[in-house]
Amino acid sequence: MGTKKRTPALVRTPTSGRDLALPKSEPLPSSGRPVAVISGERGTALEYASICVTGGYDVALWSVHPPVEKKDLPERITASTIPPRSASVALELTNVDQGGKRKNIEHLDRALAPDIAILSSSLTVSASEQASWITGRHRLVGFAGLPTFGNAQVVEVAPTVHTPRQTMQVARVFFRSLGKDVELVQDRVGLVSARIICQLINEAAFALQDDIALPEDIDTAMKLGVSYPHGPLEWADRIGVDNVVAVLSALQREYQEERYRVAPLLRNLALGGTWWRRSAVESSTEGQS
């Protein structure tokens, strides 16, 4: 006889009073608060850790790169060497290093109770492909996880062909407990907002390398002309150029279309680290005045 597939069990969340995945046999931690385990790139991981704490969770950071010093973490956020078995939900937030992402997801699948949902950023590799890496394919759901995206009111969530109704309910309830509205989208690389924003940034980089306008003029034109909250180069600064290049590169691999070709200047900026950021340039200029 075949083994019956286990789907997420349900317990109560901290703020909404509604249900969230947790093994029924495993008690909540001594604080009485559910635990979210978060892995991935440091900027995005710390952003979502703060959001989860505000939503009433304790957070265990595991496999965060670059590593986070325990002494630098605020109350209710800890650094863990292994994913805690008591976790209520797991978030995997790697976008740039796909090899590292696969290792994290495989490890989470082995380490966590089989009823626990894994909510994974699916901007550079589809949620369906990620689900194919693990035994518990039913537990993985994709979403749009980039720096600054956690502050948005709406979160894009992408179920896979393996996602049962119970796992989708877990994802909805979790994000609603953080005060987010859930928008279901197709499981495609880049999803919706990130695809559009990264293409805008790429086009701005082409304009910049062709000496069409200065960076501040490009940003001002887009903010005043089409009422965007940020200019495209300011957006690149906030999101991280390495993340932008990772999304565009994934779109180009997926669709093989010229419109996703990364501007050479943008790729060079990603390789150069943070020296180019406007805040750093402005500080340097002020120091010379």
Explain how this protein is built.
The protein has 289 residues and is α/β, with parallel strands linked by helices. It folds into two domains: 174 residues, Rossmann fold (3-Layer(aba) Sandwich); 85 residues, Orthogonal Bundle (N-(1-d-carboxylethyl)-l-norvaline Dehydrogenase, domain 2). It has ten helices and ten strands. The strands form two sheets. Strands 5-4-3-6-7-8-9-10 form an eight-stranded mixed β-sheet, sandwiched between helices. The chain has a two-stranded antiparallel ribbon with strand order 1-2. Helix 5 packs across helix 8 and helix 8 packs across helix 9. The radius of gyration is 20 Å and the shape is globular. It starts with 10 loop residues before the first strand and ends with a helix. The N terminus and C terminus are likely disordered.
